[in-house]
Amino acid sequence: MAADLPSSPTPEPMKKGVRTLIRATGEGAERVRAYLTEKIPEAVGADHAAEFVMTTCESFDEAVEDAAATASYARTRGEESPPIESVDRLMSSENPVRVWREYRRMSLAALADQAGIGNGYLPQIENGERTGTIKTMKKLAAAPGLELDDLV
């Protein structure tokens, strides 16, 4: 099997006194490991931390995606997670004031009252007939416990 891979010179150590380990992962890892073991046996280890990792593009992409998901989870842990239906509505450009108001199970009158705006003004904002001022949008965000960024 190892004969199928092109030959290359044995690499020089990256740093003196540091043991360089190369770990092959993903599809074809056994073949790569066999080749490397034959050419540079001291650089291949299965149970040691590796300075270099050889992997397929697919495995690498999957690892990057997993790392991004883990980082995103850690960054947003403890934050509210609205149901997917609400997220879909927000992603489809539905008015966020309406989506959040309905998610919070607030009536138009209750939100308008808590935000200190007129009962006629809120439906106009939700229907896109008027845009609220920053001051008004801050009030509309604060009433159901949101940030301004959630509405604009």
List keywords for this structure.
single chain; 152 residues; mainly alpha; 434 Repressor (Amino-terminal Domain); 2 domains; two-stranded parallel ribbon; 7 helices; 2 strands; rod-shaped
Can you characterise this structure?
This protein has 152 residues and is mainly alpha-helical. The protein folds into 2 domains: 2-76, no CATH class; 84-150, lambda repressor-like DNA-binding domains (434 Repressor (Amino-terminal Domain), Orthogonal Bundle), CATH 1.10.260. It is 46% helix and 4% strand. The protein is built from 7 helices and 2 strands; from the N terminus they run E-H-E-H-H-H-H-H-H. The chain has helices spanning 29-39, 57-76, 84-91, 96-103, 108-115, 121-126, 134-142; strands at residues 22-24, 52-54. The chain has a two-stranded parallel sheet. Strand 1 (22-24), helix 1 and strand 2 (52-54) form a beta-alpha-beta unit. Helix 5 crosses helix 7 (134-142). The chain is rod-shaped. The model has no long low-confidence stretch (mean pLDDT 78).
> What is the domain tally?
2
The ordered H/E elements are EHEHHHHHH
Radius of gyration, whole Å: 28 Å
Shape, per Cα inertia axes: rod-shaped
